[in-house]
Amino acid sequence: MPAPEPPPAAPALPRLAVVIDDVGQSLTVGRRLLALPGPVALAILPQLPHSQTLASEAAAAGKPVMLHLPMENMAGLSIGPGGLTTGMTEAEFRSQLQQSLNAFGPIQGVNNHMGSRLTADRQRMDWLMQVLAERQLFFVDSRTTAQTQAAFAAEAARVPHVSRDIFLDNVRSEAEIDHEFRQVLARARKQGAAVLIGHPYPETLAYLERRLPQLEAEGVQLVSVQVLLER
Ligand SMILES: [Zn+2]
């Protein structure tokens, strides 16, 4: 008798990781984000009024917490407290980085807030990734410039890393948000996985509250960045 054939492996579902940036200003909005289904990551800015509370509540709810690390941009926009700039000496850079990494409870990873100037600076990306490697943190490159050196530096320092595929809400209208969401699902199906970044805007919240519960029925698995990086 021929040996029974092993059951066919279930085809892996396309995976989507969702990160919400700029969290920490509003407790109400932060709690709505925590109520979203699945492992949606809160990327929390270091020194906002509710950074600490939301980080603790996210951890208690089993939601992934990331540090949303402010970095110098080309436009000269204010990056807020706890940020890194190209003008800092190595000692200043490392000291500010450690302070921001310690700003609230445990984090799983880091992504950049702005940073079109700083992420293009390979030396400073090397300094950053050395510290992330020591702390065993992952990095999500928000890709605010095509010249970003973050992925190269992360690779060199062996920091698990991934790049943002799509920004959900550069235009805050339901039609545009829906368009971007469809784009990221198409990417996930094509590449096997994709990373979506959104912001705590009312339009984005309303969209995700309605849309995320339907994902599984559409054959897309919502996963944390950490899980996406492990496979
Ligand atoms: Zn940001």
Automatic annotation (TrEMBL):
Gene Ontology BP annotations: carbohydrate metabolic process
InterPro entries in the record: Divergent_DAC, Glyco_hydro/deAcase_b/a-brl
CDD domains: CE4_DAC2
SUPFAM superfamilies per UniProt: Glycoside hydrolase/deacetylase
Protein name, as recorded: Divergent polysaccharide deacetylase family protein
Organism: Halopseudomonas pachastrellae
Lineage: Bacteria, Pseudomonadati, Pseudomonadota, Gammaproteobacteria, Pseudomonadales
